[in-house]
Design brief:
The protein has 475 residues and is α/β, with parallel strands linked by helices. It is built from 18 helices and 15 strands. It is an enzyme of class 2 (transferase). Its EC number is 2.4.1.-.
């Protein structure tokens, strides 16, 4: 009976892409030992970008099997509630489908390992009941792993919601002191339905056979040592941790108008002269904030490539969207903006080919939301960053990027959550012109070389991955 590795991702681009890359990695190095099967969940939160990505991957990656789970449905009234609650409910609803899928796959394959996205944590019990070894895959870095492993400990240190003690700094092993406001929003409020889900993720991670992290040894070395030394789980054994990153999607060689326009424009710009501004597939700003960015870019005098999404709220602190509507740039941006910047700026709607852009010779800086995929893409391209976190664990990533890794400078907000045009101007100029930016650029160049080495014959990520795969062979 052929051996297979089953992967269970979350159907969100930031999670799905790196899980698919993990599947490709397994096939690339161990196609003679394992096949790879990816479980595809379907439900009311499916988005066009995920659907398009899955269609493209299934058509172009014949070495991976895709097993589609039955589509889930919910009452329309339930879909108007808290997004975290909906996601949690859908994942729990899928457990019977996961059970059936694993049983079905086991009739024709020997399932050597079941790898689940950390958000899909409830599936651990399903695989355990079937006697299938289960591993976690963290799409974030060691910062996120430290947070989840230690969160049950922090949870037991107080009965208050952290949002009610806002001046408190929390102490996670290996991290700089973390202001309460830097935690993912559900972790700040004990009444949030996702709060206990986070606690459970932390507890379930300990019960797994191992934890894969999309990072590499020298990027987060002291923190990784803190975790593997057991300091994040002082009351139980820490499972083996495998740093198998950076797992980054390859640039697509597709004919696309946006791709062609972006790359053609970059081709006409001087080396390392362009600052790239992009805030992920779910990051969004208020109209007021978009206009502040525009004014700041105009006054900075710098060349820029800027991805603009349609505002969804006028709340300067609301930054997550599930919508994907195109913005009306003429109505959204300040009058005269395009005339003033047409010689040195390029604005695209909603999406740009980020990996290609970051690796382009003309790009010399990146203003980012600090989503982990974006961080890895910038690090692998050797591009220094301005850190502008928006949601999830991005504020914690920012703190580590700025204070520990020293690969980014911080964008500072005012009390109402707005980043001023003057701050945008100063940070962009500092990154592209000043000594502070030069130091970051040199540090980023060296880290790019380290990132390139991790998959060489004696590279740390290849060694970790080989150790993991050989354990699948022998168990």
């Amino acid at each position: 009976m052929e051996d297979t590795i089953v992967l269970y991702p979350v159907m969100a681009m930031g999670h799905l892409v790196s899980m698919v890359e993990l599947g490709k990695l397994i096939v690339r190095h161990y196609h003679h030992r394992f096949s790879v099967t990816i479980l595809i969940a379907r439900g009311p939160l499916d988005t066009p970008d995920v659907t398009t990505f899955l269609r493209h991957i299934s058509e172009s990656t014949h070495s991976i099997n895709f097993h589609h789970l039955p589509a889930l449905s919910m009452n329309p009234s339930d879909l108007n509630g808290n997004l975290g609650t909906i996601i949690m409910e859908l994942i729990h609803l899928n457990n019977p489908n996961i059970h059936h899928a694993l049983q079905t796959i086991s009739k024709t394959y020997s399932v050597r390992a079941f790898v689940i996205d950390f958000i899909c944590s409830p599936a651990l019990s399903v695989a355990s009941d079937l006697g299938i070894p289960t591993y976690y895959f963290l799409t974030g870095g060691a910062v996120l792993l430290s947070f989840f492993l230690y969160f049950p400990i922090i949870h037991n240190q107080t009965t208050k919601s952290f949002k009610d003690i806002p001046t408190t700094h929390l102490h996670f092993p290996g991290l700089p002191p973390v202001p309460v406001s830097y935690l993912p929003e559900p972790a700040q409020d004990r009444e949030d339905p996702f709060y206990n889900y986070f606690v459970q993720i932390g507890l379930n991670l300990r019960r797994s056979k191992g934890i894969m992290v999309n990072t590499f040894e020298c990027l987060e070395s002291p923190l990784i040592k803190t975790i593997t030394d057991g300091l994040c789980v002082p009351d139980a054994p820490t499972p083996p941790v495998y740093c198998v990153g950076p797992l980054i999607a390859s640039p697509e060689n597709k004919e696309d108008t946006t791709v062609n326009q972006c790359i053609s424009w970059l081709d006409s710009q001087p080396s390392q002269s362009v600052v790239f501004l992009s805030f992920g597939s779910r990051g969004v700003f208020s109209t007021a904030q978009v206009r502040e960015i525009a004014i700041g870019l105009e006054k900075s005098g710098q060349r820029f490539l800027w991805v603009v999404r349609k505002p969804e709220s006028e709340d300067n602190n609301k930054h997550f969207t599930t919508e994907n509507k195109e913005p009306d740039l003429e109505a959204l941006l300040p009058e005269g903006f395009f005339d003033q910047t047409k010689e040195r700026g390029f604005v695209v709607k909603s999406w740009a080919p980020q990996v290609q852009v970051l690796n382009h010779e003309s790009v010399g800086g990146f203003v980012t939301h600090c989503g982990w995929n974006s961080v890895l893409e910038a690090v692998s391209a050797g591009v220094p960053m301005v850190a502008w976190p928006l949601y999830a664990e991005q504020h914690m990533n920012k703190a580590f990027l700025v204070e520990e890794m020293k690969l980014a400078m911080s964008m500072e907000k005012s009390e109402d959550g707005l980043v001023s045009a003057a701050e945008v101007e100063n940070r962009v100029r500092a990154l592209m012109e000043w000594e502070e930016g030069r130091v970051l650029r040199e540090k980023s160049r060296k880290m790019k070389e380290e990132a390139m080495d991790v998959w060489s014959d004696c590279g740390s990520s290849l060694i970790a991955f080989t150790k993991l795969a050989e354990s699948w062979v022998s168990q």
